[in-house]
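To illustrate the input format used throughout this study, we show a single complete record. The first block contains the structure-token representation of the backbone; no residue identities are included at this stage. The design step must infer an amino acid for every position from geometry alone.
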């Protein structure tokens, strides 16, 4: 069994989350982040225009390590140590913007999509609990999920502080209460790999320059569009190539364009 949650752990985690809470507040003032919690982590870089993913699905960096949230929870299963967090964070914002309530059946995970329901099994005593992911963490080596106090009590993790567990993703819970004595019904977790997507190769203040580049691209690349974007302080004309429905296709097209000399080409939502 892993070691219990110590006062040193709690102080260190509190410091990490407080630091990022301040960073989030600063970014919010700059208009770079729409929604985030004080327990949440700032993406490692501002989203590119057209990025369809919510802030909680973008890469973020904590203590020098970058994490990449998964596109879909479908088929997700992992084993490792669970811990729990409570009083130091109760009443504060979680990464998805909720107010953390340690007496609700929730948990923090480093990469699963927000609001995914998972079944957690304590491998020491075979107790099971279903929790909803609404936060990021834990950022302690060797731990894969941070449970609320309520979930920790149900699983028998509250006393020892940690336990070896298995985490299995269930999906998103459907609206409405389940029929008595029947299991809850879950919908598959959303995938951010579904398009349509395109690849942006340039952005120009001069509309004529944008159309000139588009015209030169069409004989080789086929579908090319010029999209007007008003940033508020300036208008840009974005040149975009292709239209595909799968993220892998978009990334493949992105690489072809880069190899053709468009080194700054990147895939975006249509």
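Output of the design step:
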């Amino acid at each position: 069994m892993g070691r219990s949650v110590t006062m040193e752990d709690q102080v260190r985690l509190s410091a990490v989350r407080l630091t990022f809470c301040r960073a989030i507040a600063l970014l919010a003032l700059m208009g770079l982040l729409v929604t985030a919690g004080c327990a949440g982590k700032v993406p490692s870089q501002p989203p590119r225009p057209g990025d369809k993913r919510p802030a909680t699905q973008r890469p973020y960096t904590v203590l020098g390590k970058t994490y990449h949230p998964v596109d879909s929870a479908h088929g997700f299963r992992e084993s490792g140590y669970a811990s729990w967090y409570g009083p130091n964070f109760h009443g504060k914002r979680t990464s998805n913007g909720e107010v953390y309530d340690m007496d609700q059946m929730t948990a923090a995970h480093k990469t699963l999509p927000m609001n995914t329901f998972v079944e957690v099994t304590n491998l020491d005593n075979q107790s099971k609990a279903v929790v909803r992911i609404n936060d990021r963490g834990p950022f302690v080596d060797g731990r894969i999920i941070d449970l609320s106090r309520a979930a920790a009590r149900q699983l028998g993790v509250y006393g020892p502080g940690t336990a070896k567990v298995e985490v299995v993703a269930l999906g998103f819970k459907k609206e409405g209460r389940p029929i008595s004595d029947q299991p809850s019904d879950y919908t598959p977790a959303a995938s951010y790999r579904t398009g349509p997507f395109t690849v942006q190769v340039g952005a120009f203040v001069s509309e004529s320059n944008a159309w000139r580049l588009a015209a030169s691209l069409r004989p080789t690349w086929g579908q090319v569009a010029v999209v007007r974007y008003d940033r508020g302080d300036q208008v840009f004309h974005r040149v975009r190539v292709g239209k595909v429905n799968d993220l892998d296709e978009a990334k493949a097209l992105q690489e072809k364009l880069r190899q053709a000399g468009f080194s700054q080409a990147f895939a975006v939502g249509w």
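Structural context for interpreting the output: Helices lie at 7-29, 149-155, 207-221, 247-259. The two ends are 49 Å apart (CA to CA).
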